[in-house]
């Protein structure tokens, strides 16, 4: 049997990620591989770090890209900062808050779960109450942009509460980074992680992470050993920050980092605030069209993420048939509902390079046609 080269179809990616990758980012990926301790590569890594600091709006010295997807960014925060027995306030208003809870419990911590309904933001009042009731809590963990529902939580208010109660905040910014306002230093965020394949529009497989000086202090002062060797940031720090004395920890995904460098460079060129405004403008266009098609949003207007539009599937429409028709006939991917919303909602992503007018037009026209046919 002769196996042919794999030729992926050219899709338009408007789901919950990965999002469309900018052509220049794909080109960067194909540049010649150099050694991961090559002086030219190390110089590029310094630029990646500076660009990540810009994207996160932070001066945190500890700002890196973990060589693994967003989930590893989540795990990096918990495994490095938490110690067995630590109490963590975990906010759960979708799939990813639940994953945070699982991280806490697997590491021998005690999760105090603050639940909010799917499709609603994390309640700042409930979190304040939980912090008052648990003065021994060490961390507050929440998801800024819940990709499973499309709800945006008030990271600024939540992190201010964390500071007030002297607990460290751990923030999931996988879907928010590059898509909506996010200011790590100004908001006093202690540990934050993201992913390369959502609003950064890079290839999947890298997780930007940043720790505040308070978080780094906590890491250095910890008593219990870090249970993961690969994610132990005290070992990785030597690789990312050793001035001229970088040592081998693991082989960096060299070409993926070229891609991240290019995607962050493009973000900086556009300007963060312009990128946030573009996501908002494309969301407004999409929303106007979805309204005409009679598709209602899962999330109330005030808390809607521009980059992740969850809409209810109308009565009598076959979820799977519509998504297959979009994929097979229009090369268009939109997301299925997750968890509580499985079979009930679609998730239309406008992330990074996918947040363009031509995508909005394609999505609305294709949806209209396919839904009309499904009704006949
Ligand atoms: C996608 C996503 C993750 C997980 O990222 P992976 O790269 O798929 O591991 C975590 N949190 C949120 C909010 C996400 O959207």
From TrEMBL:
<protein>
    <submittedName>
        <fullName>Alanine-glyoxylate aminotransferase apoenzyme</fullName>
        <ecNumber>2.6.1.44</ecNumber>
        <ecNumber>2.6.1.51</ecNumber>
    </submittedName>
</protein>
<feature type="binding site">
    <location>
        <position position="347"/>
    </location>
    <ligand>
        <name>substrate</name>
    </ligand>
</feature>
<keyword id="KW-0808">Transferase</keyword>
<keyword id="KW-0663">Pyridoxal phosphate</keyword>
<dbReference type="InterPro" id="IPR015424">
    <property type="entry name" value="PyrdxlP-dep_Trfase"/>
</dbReference>
<keyword id="KW-0032">Aminotransferase</keyword>
<dbReference type="GO" id="GO:0008453">
    <property type="term" value="F:alanine-glyoxylate transaminase activity"/>
</dbReference>
<comment type="similarity">
    <text>Belongs to the class-V pyridoxal-phosphate-dependent aminotransferase family.</text>
</comment>
<feature type="modified residue" description="N6-(pyridoxal phosphate)lysine">
    <location>
        <position position="198"/>
    </location>
</feature>
<dbReference type="InterPro" id="IPR024169">
    <property type="entry name" value="SP_NH2Trfase/AEP_transaminase"/>
</dbReference>
<feature type="region of interest" description="Disordered">
    <location>
        <begin position="1"/>
        <end position="21"/>
    </location>
</feature>
<dbReference type="Pfam" id="PF00266">
    <property type="entry name" value="Aminotran_5"/>
</dbReference>
<dbReference type="InterPro" id="IPR015422">
    <property type="entry name" value="PyrdxlP-dep_Trfase_small"/>
</dbReference>
<dbReference type="GO" id="GO:0004760">
    <property type="term" value="F:L-serine-pyruvate transaminase activity"/>
</dbReference>
<dbReference type="InterPro" id="IPR000192">
    <property type="entry name" value="Aminotrans_V_dom"/>
</dbReference>
<feature type="domain" description="Aminotransferase class V">
    <location>
        <begin position="33"/>
        <end position="337"/>
    </location>
</feature>
<dbReference type="GO" id="GO:0019265">
    <property type="term" value="P:glycine biosynthetic process, by transamination of glyoxylate"/>
</dbReference>
<dbReference type="InterPro" id="IPR015421">
    <property type="entry name" value="PyrdxlP-dep_Trfase_major"/>
</dbReference>
<dbReference type="InterPro" id="IPR020578">
    <property type="entry name" value="Aminotrans_V_PyrdxlP_BS"/>
</dbReference>
């Amino acid at each position: 049997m002769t196996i042919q080269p794999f030729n992926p179809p050219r899709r338009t990616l408007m789901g919950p990620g990965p999002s469309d990758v900018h052509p220049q980012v794909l080109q960067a990926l194909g540049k010649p591989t150099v050694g991961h301790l090559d002086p030219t590569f190390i110089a590029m890594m310094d630029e990646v770090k500076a660009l990540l600091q810009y994207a996160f709006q932070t001066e945190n010295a500890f700002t890196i890209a973990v060589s693994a997807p967003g989930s590893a960014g989540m795990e990096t925060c918990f495994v490095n900062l938490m110690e067995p027995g630590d109490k963590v306030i975990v906010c759960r208003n979708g799939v990813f808050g639940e994953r945070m809870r699982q991280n806490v419990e697997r590491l021998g911590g005690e999760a105090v779960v603050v639940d909010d309904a799917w499709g609603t933001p994390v309640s700042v009042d409930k979190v304040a109450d939980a912090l008052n009731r648990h003065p021994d809590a060490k961390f507050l963990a929440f998801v800024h942009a819940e990709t499973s529902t499309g709800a945006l939580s008030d990271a600024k208010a939540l992190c201010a509460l964390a500071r007030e109660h002297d607990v460290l905040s751990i923030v999931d910014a996988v879907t928010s980074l590059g898509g909506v306002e996010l200011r790590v230093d100004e908001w006093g965020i202690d540990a934050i992680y993201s992913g390369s394949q959502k609003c950064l529009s890079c290839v999947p497989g890298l997780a930007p992470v940043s720790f505040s000086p308070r978080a780094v202090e906590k890491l250095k002062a910890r008593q219990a050993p870090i249970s993961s060797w690969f994610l132990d940031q005290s070992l990785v720090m030597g690789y990312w920050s050793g001035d001229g004395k970088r040592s081998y920890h693991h082989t960096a995904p060299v070409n993926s980092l070229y891609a991240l460098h290019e995607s962050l460079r493009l973000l900086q060129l556009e300007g963060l605030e312009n990128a946030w405004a573009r996501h908002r403008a494309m969301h407004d266009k999409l929303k106007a069209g979805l309204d005409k098609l009679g598709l209602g949003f899962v999330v109330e207007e005030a808390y809607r993420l521009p980059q992740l539009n969850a809409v209810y599937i109308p009565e009598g429409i076959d979820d799977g048939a519509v998504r297959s028709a979009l994929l097979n006939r229009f090369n268009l991917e939109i997301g299925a509902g997750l968890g509580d919303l499985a079979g009930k909602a679609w998730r239309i992503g406008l992330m990074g390079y996918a947040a363009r007018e031509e995508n909005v037009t394609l999505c609305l026209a294709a949806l209209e046609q396919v839904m009309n046919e499904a009704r006949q």
